[in-house]
C-alpha cells in the first residue's frame, strides 16, 4: 500500500499534529497506542480536500505503528446513499491506503440511544417541544445570551417517557428534539443546549425503517470515536468551536481512554470548487457528466483526468499541515502530477495538425528504423523502433514561411534536426491555387542519423513545444 511507495508522502515532516502524537507516545498516554480514523459522511464523492485528511490520518497511523478506521458517519438518512459508500471505499483504496476496520455510526445506534437515556437520567438532557424557529429564537445572538426553553425543567421521568415514544414513532418530524442541558448563556453557541436527537421518518441505507430518530453529528461523532478507542480525532478547523461539546459529551459518558480532538486547516485550492454541496449541485443540474467528470476536483475526477495516487499523496505531503487557513495554488497540484508522470510515462510522438514533408533525396521505397527513447528520465524504459521513410508529417505549427527572429523551427532554407533521425533543410514550399501550403520539399543529410553531425554543426534545435533541446517531432509514413 502507500508505505511501499518511495514518494515524498512516505517521508512526511513532523508537523504539529505528529508532534502531539509523538509526545503522547513518549509520555505513555493511551497506553502507547495510536488509533486514528477517517470519518466521511456518505452524502457525496470525495474530493482533493478529503485526500489531505486521508493522507494525514492513515499516514500517522502507518508511521507510528497504529491503526486507522474507515468510519462512515451516516446519521442523516435523507442525504446518504450506498453509492457514496462504495465510491469512498474505492477512492481510499485507490490512493493506496487500507483501513484497519470498516465501521459505521449506524453500527452504534442502539448504544448511542442508551447514551442519550443515560444523559437524561443524569439530568443532562431533556426533550424539547419547541419548533425549529422557536429554538433558534431562544438561542440568543452573539451579543445576547439565550433563554431557557420552557421545557428545560421537565422531570426526568417525563423526558424518558417522551424519548421512548419518539423512538416508537408516535410523533411527526419536528414535534420534539432531545437537547443537552449545558448553558444557554455560553459565548459558544455549540454549548447553548445543542440538539442531540431529532425525529426523521426516513429509511436508512443500512438500518432501513428500524429507526425514526437519528443522532445529530455532534452527538454521534465523539461517542463513536470513544467506542472505537480512537486516540487522536483529527478534523478540520471548522470543528474547533465544537470541541468543547465533544469533550463535554465524552466526559459525561466515557470513564477512561478518552480521545483527543485536534484541528488543522482544511485544503483550499484557488480557482477550485471545494464545497461538496456545490459539487452535488453541479452534478444534479447536469452541468457536469457526473461525480467523475474530469473537470471536477473529486478524487474520481482527478483519476479520470490522469492523476496518479502517487502524485496526489506527494501533493499532500508538499503542502503540509497548518493551523491557520490558507489558499494553495492549484499549480502545486499540477506540479506534482507533472513530476510523477515525467518519471514514469513512456513518450510517444503524435501530430495533431499534420503538414506533409517529402525528402526529395531520400531513396524511394526505402524504410529504415530509428531508435527512440521511451523515457529520458528512466533508462530502464528502453527504446522503441520507429519507421523512417521518404514521406513524413510534422506539426503545422513547426513551420513558418516568413518566420520572425528567434524562430527555431522549420522555414525555407533553414536546417533543423528531426528527433532521433536526420538534419533536414526546406528547399521548396508547395501550395494550392488559394495559397494554402500542401507540402514541404526538403533534403536530408544522411551523415547525421541520430542527430549527430560529423562536422559538429548543431542544426536548429526545436521540437516539443516546451522541450528546448528537442528537435522537431515527425510522424513517418511508409508511403513513398
Structure explained in plain terms:
- There is one protein chain.
- With 480 residues, this protein is an alpha/beta fold.
- The chain is 28% helix and 18% strand.
- The protein has a 6-stranded mixed sheet, with no helix packed on it.
- α2 (48-63) crosses α11 (309-319), α7 packs across α8 (243-253) and α11 (309-319) packs across α12.
- The longest helix is centred in the N-terminal third of the chain and has 16 residues, at 48-63.
- The radius of gyration is 32 Å and the shape is elongated.
- The two termini are 52 Å apart.
Question: What topology emerges from the helices and strands here?
Answer:
Layout: H1 16-26, E1 35-38, H2 48-63, E2 67-72, H3 82-94, E3 102-104, H4 109-121, E4 125-128, H5 132-138, H6 156-167, E5 177-180, E6 195-199, E7 213-215, H7 217-227, E8 232-236, H8 243-253, E9 260-264, H9 276-284, H10 299-305, H11 309-319, H12 330-344, E10 354-359, E11 368-373, E12 383-388, E13 391-395, E14 415-417, E15 423-431, E16 437-445, E17 474-476
Parallel strand pairs: 1-2, 2-3, 8-9, 10-16
Antiparallel strand pairs: 4-5, 5-6, 6-7, 10-13, 11-12, 13-17, 14-15, 15-16
Helix pairs in contact: 2-11, 7-8, 11-12
Amino acid at each position: 500500500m502507500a508505505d511501499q511507495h518511495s514518494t515524498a508522502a512516505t517521508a512526511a515532516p513532523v508537523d504539529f499534529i505528529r508532534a502531539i502524537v509523538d509526545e503522547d507516545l513518549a509520555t505513555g498516554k493511551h497506553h502507547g497506542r495510536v488509533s486514528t480514523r477517517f470519518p466521511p459522511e456518505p452524502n457525496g464523492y470525495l474530493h482533493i480536500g478529503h485526500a489531505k485528511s486521508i493522507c494525514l490520518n492513515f499516514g500517522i497511523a502507518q508511521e507510528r505503528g497504529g491503526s486507522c478506521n474507515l468510519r462512515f458517519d451516516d446519521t442523516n438518512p435523507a442525504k446518504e446513499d450506498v453509492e457514496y459508500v462504495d465510491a469512498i471505499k474505492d477512492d481510499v483504496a485507490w490512493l493506496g491506503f487500507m483501513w484497519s476496520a470498516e465501521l459505521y455510526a449506524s453500527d452504534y445506534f442502539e448504544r448511542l440511544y442508551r447514551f442519550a437515556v443515560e444523559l437524561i437520567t443524569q439530568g443532562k438532557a431533556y426533550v424539547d417541544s419547541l419548533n425549529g424557529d422557536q429554538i433558534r429564537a431562544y438561542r440568543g445572538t452573539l451579543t445576547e445570551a439565550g433563554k431557557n426553553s420552557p421545557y428545560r425543567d421537565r422531570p426526568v421521568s417525563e423526558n424518558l417517557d417522551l424519548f421512548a415514544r419518539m423512538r416508537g414513532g408516535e410523533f411527526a418530524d419536528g414535534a420534539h428534539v432531545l437537547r443537552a442541558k449545558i448553558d444557554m448563556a455560553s459565548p459558544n453557541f455549540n454549548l447553548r443546549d445543542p440538539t442531540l436527537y431529532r425525529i426523521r421518518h426516513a429509511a436508512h441505507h443500512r438500518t432501513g425503517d428500524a429507526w425514526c430518530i437519528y443522532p445529530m453529528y455532534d452527538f454521534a461523532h465523539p461517542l463513536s470515536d470513544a467506542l472505537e478507542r480512537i486516540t487522536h480525532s483529527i478534523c478540520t478547523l471548522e470543528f474547533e468551536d465544537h470541541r468543547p461539546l465533544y469533550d463535554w459529551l465524552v466526559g459525561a459518558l466515557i470513564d477512561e481512554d478518552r480521545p483527543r480532538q485536534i484541528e488543522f486547516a482544511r485544503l483550499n485550492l484557488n480557482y477550485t470548487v471545494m464545497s461538496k454541496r456545490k459539487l452535488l449541485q453541479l452534478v444534479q443540474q447536469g452541468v457536469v457528466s457526473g461525480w467523475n467528470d474530469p473537470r471536477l476536483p473529486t478524487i474520481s475526477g482527478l483519476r479520470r483526468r490522469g492523476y496518479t495516487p502517487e502524485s496526489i499523496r506527494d501533493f499532500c505531503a508538499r503542502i503540509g499541515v497548518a493551523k491557520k487557513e490558507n489558499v494553495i495554488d492549484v499549480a502545486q497540484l499540477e506540479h506534482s502530477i507533472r513530476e510523477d508522470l515525467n518519471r514514469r510515462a513512456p513518450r510517444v510522438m503524435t501530430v495533431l495538425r499534420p503538414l506533409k514533408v517529402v525528402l526529395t533525396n531520400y531513396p524511394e521505397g526505402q524504410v529504415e528504423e530509428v531508435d527512440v527513447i521511451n523515457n529520458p528520465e528512466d533508462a530502464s524504459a528502453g527504446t522503441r523502433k520507429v519507421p523512417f521513410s521518404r514521406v513524413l508529417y510534422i506539426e503545422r505549427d513547426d513551420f513558418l514561411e516568413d518566420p520572425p527572429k528567434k524562430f527555431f523551427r522549420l522555414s525555407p532554407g533553414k536546417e533543423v534536426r528531426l528527433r532521433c533521425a536526420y538534419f533536414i533543410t526546406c528547399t521548396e514550399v508547395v501550395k494550392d491555387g488559394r495559397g494554402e501550403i500542401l507540402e514541404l520539399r526538403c533534403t536530408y543529410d544522411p551523415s547525421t542519423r541520430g542527430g549527430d553531425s560529423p562536422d559538429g554543426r548543431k542544426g536548429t534545435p526545436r521540437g516539443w513545444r516546451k522541450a528546448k533541446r528537442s528537435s522537431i517531432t515527425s510522424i513517418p509514413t511508409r508511403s513513398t
